[in-house]
Specification:
Oligomer: single chain
Distance between the termini: 79 Å
Shape: rod-shaped
Structural class: mainly alpha
Number of strands: 3
Strand content: 5-15%
Radius of gyration: 27 Å
Amino acid sequence: MKNLEQSLFREIQKLKAFQINRLRRMEKRQIEILNQEKFENTLDDWLTEKEVEKQYKISRSTLYRYRVNEGLKAYKNDYNGKIRYKKRDVEDFLTKKGRSW
């Protein structure tokens, strides 16, 4: 009877370890998926100057004026020096200006 109990205990321990490892792999995969979605969503939130001009029908000179003189937030990429705009910032700014897109 003692051997049977020990054998059952070992099998239960193996099953526990298997389930724990399985749950850890699932959790890791879920985190990877969430990070990928976060990254993709982040890319959608940033616009180049050309994208802002096209999407909101703003000329280059107007966009420049908004940025330099009227406080539209812009972000310069340290790596390549290109200017980007957060979509939310542009929409909020244009709403305050009374412009619709």
